[in-house]
Amino acid sequence: MASFTPYTYIQCPCHDTTTTTTTTSQSRPAEDAPSPTSPHSSDDDDDDHNFDPRAPRSNYSLYPLEYLLWCDVCHQIRCPRCVAEELVTIYCPNCLFEVASSSLKTEGNRCTRSCFQCPICIGPLAVQSLESAPEPSLLSADNANTATTPAGPWILSCSYCNWNSSEIGVKFDKPQGIFAQLQKLRHGEDSHSKHAVGGDTSPTKTDSVAATMKARFSAMRSFYSAQNAIANPSSGLGDYGFSSPGALSRIMSIYSGNNAGSHKQKSKGTMTREADSASEGFRALDLDDSSAVSQLRRDGWDSTVIGDQAKSQVEEGARFAEELWPIPYLLRTKRSKRCPVCRHIISKPESKVANTRFRMRLVANTTIPSISIKPFNPPPALLKPLQPVQYLLTFRNPLFDEVKVTLATPATTPGRFASRVTVLCPQFQMDPSTESGMYLVDDALKDDNKDIQGRRRRGTEGGTHQAEAGKIWERGHNWVTIVVEVVPASLSLEAPPALLRKEGEPEPDLSPLKEDEDVLEIPMFVRLEWEGDVSHDQMSTSTGKEKDAREKKELAYWCTIGIGRISQE
Amino acid sequence: MSSSNKRQSVLPRMPAGPKAPVNFSSSITIADSALLAGKHTINIGSESVVHPRARLDSALGRITIGRRCVVHERTSLGAAPASAPASDPTILNTQGGVTIGDYATLEVGAVVEAGGTVVGEGCVVGIGCRIGSGAKLGKHCTLTPLSEIQPGEEVPDFTVVYSNGTRRLDRRGITELKHKAQARQIEVLKRLIPSNPTKFQ
């Protein structure tokens, strides 16, 4: 509670794709209904309506700068939510083996090699041999021996929590192709004999093993497709299959009108029936929990699964620890990202699994200035209501061009508790960024001087109000610091006197403080202007005849700046 | 290069107090740089291995290490209890040492507090674990790295403590194999660690 890290979130332009379409095409009143919190929403098609960082929809468009991508062609910010993703590589995170998308369709989204996770602790499982004795050899010294003479059944074992697959009675004949062996054990004929190891087998368990989801689904599908084939020729009025002679005769009978009634009865007779036996994929819910109860009594709390374990299982429904199966690793993907508007690729990873580099990655922080927030004076833990506080915002220019920045904030923050915000210098220029080390040294020297000067100034004046309106507080070779003054609102919930309230104004919301409503967030509109190189698509049309052509560029976006929490006294 | 070129420790040397009374089996392996201190007896059973810079402090009570144990580097046996549990502050007052059962392994940086603490036979105490004062570990327990056992706690046999204190039973049934492996490991360690028990006697 006491500690609060200031933050800056930037709004992706994808948030108002709906509103831009409404201006051109039809309007959707449900979407554009003015929210009761934002004061300017009555004129909602207006360009200058304020952005409310607390609106529920804002959650989906606000991102830290590091998350944002940049489309060079559209010249716009792109967020993880609005980019179009394409799979580049599908691979297993454990064995780093690439999986073809065709085999993905037939074999599912899990690794079909010998990669398994422990069902207890999700650690990786290793294949180890059981010696001729029933004890598995889990220790390295013994393994070295058995490696030369691989013998006996094999098990999967977890080296972290000491789980092994013999606890659920699973042993393998050979150390390769564990996935197929496990599939066979689980879904094959062996499933009944396997559990004889565990002693008494509860009926629920064998049922759930025998009729797995997959087997049931395929049984059901074949049953119902057969049923459909029977039913279709005499199906109701809704779907005519004109090619089938049955439908044709039915139409004829409707028009002739002679034996319509009798036909209807006939069609009722050939109605599809529902699956009702196990071979058709039907499974009656077993309401007899006595075996589960007795097992719970016998083995206690420790034999049950916890929610996370049950959720990470491939097939649902596990209730006891012995129903937990090794989890084949979920495959992962590497994805390339495209701009949703111009379809240009803005991020593309190297297709080799082991290579973590990117072939292409256009990130927003190569264009958008980063904003860092620092309190002017050493901050108290919480902001005191109605006491002005000053903050230093440092903008750092990543571009190699001079950038003109214009800032705008609403005078009061949106929401129930309106704090006053004043940007003392809403317009300034940032010098270009350079990679040359010389400038950095210069900058460092300058910084030192500034620091001394600043301290001196603070020493002589002693007050907190050295920041002048309209002036930059500090500037470096590619950064500028400005001062923002904030008067935090009081969080007391008192109804305003009835006399002051205007006619027809809505009842003030006096509900208790909601979560994070005491956080002071400033919506800020940032507009950048600079002269840069002509962007790529125009270059190609002009066939590069003016290499050093410059064009004026402009970018504007909303961001929200979290300053701190307001004290609740 | 002579050994005088070695960097000397800047820390002040251990106060050269009276040596702790020891009772070593003749077949143990104890590194020269192990630290033994305290006024109670330190017993070490046959074929046990004490790595360099393991600290055995018998100030609060007798330390007994069983047969074929491995005490790794920077472990601390008989450390002063960190804090008394609020429910029962009397635990700290009980004088008592540390008892380590046969075939136990204490991995790097493990701390076993003094006060009648027992580590059972065949236990594996993982890296950086802390066993509170007066806690009793049953036989063949496994503590995964950085686990903590509260003071005065009793842990049943074959318990595996993992993932922030979650517990389960080890049903592998491989105690015999583990013993064999421990014996093999000790054979190797004997060759690797120069033993100097006379320094402490």
TrEMBL record, chain A:
Pfam families cross-referenced by the UniProt entry: Dynactin_p62 (PF05502)
Keywords of this entry: Acetylation, Coiled coil, Cytoplasm, Cytoskeleton, Isopeptide bond, Phosphoprotein, Ubl conjugation
Keyword Ribonucleoprotein among UniProt keywords: no
InterPro entries named in the record: DCTN4
Domain of life (superkingdom): Eukaryota
Compartment list: Cytoplasm, Cytoskeleton, Microtubule organizing center, Centrosome; Cytoplasm, Cytoskeleton, Stress fiber; Cytoplasm, Myofibril
PANTHER family the record matches: DYNACTIN P62 SUBUNIT, DYNACTIN SUBUNIT 4
Oligomeric form and interacting partners: Subunit of dynactin, a multiprotein complex part of a tripartite complex with dynein and a adapter, such as BICDL1, BICD2 or HOOK3. The dynactin complex is built around ACTR1A/ACTB filament and consists of an actin-related filament composed of a shoulder domain, a pointed end and a barbed end. Its length is defined by its flexible shoulder domain. The soulder is composed of 2 DCTN1 subunits, 4 DCTN2 and 2 DCTN3. The 4 DCNT2 (via N-terminus) bind the ACTR1A filament and act as molecular rulers to determine the length. The pointed end is important for binding dynein-dynactin cargo adapters.
Name of the featured protein: Dynactin subunit 4
Organism (species): Anthostomella pinea
Automatic annotation (TrEMBL), chain B:
Domain of life: Eukaryota
Gene Ontology terms: biological process: mitotic spindle organization
Any GO molecular function: dynein complex binding
SUPFAM superfamilies reported in the protein's UniProt record: Trimeric LpxA-like enzymes (SSF51161)
Subcellular compartments: Cytoplasm, Cytoskeleton
Gene Ontology cellular component annotations, sorted alphabetically: dynactin complex
Keyword Cytoplasm found: yes
Keyword list, A-Z: Cytoplasm, Cytoskeleton
Similarity-based family: Belongs to the dynactin subunits 5/6 family. Dynactin subunit 6 subfamily.
Function according to Swiss-Prot or TrEMBL: Part of the dynactin complex that activates the molecular motor dynein for ultra-processive transport along microtubules.
Annotated protein name in UniProt: Dynactin subunit 6
Organism of this sequence: Anthostomella pinea
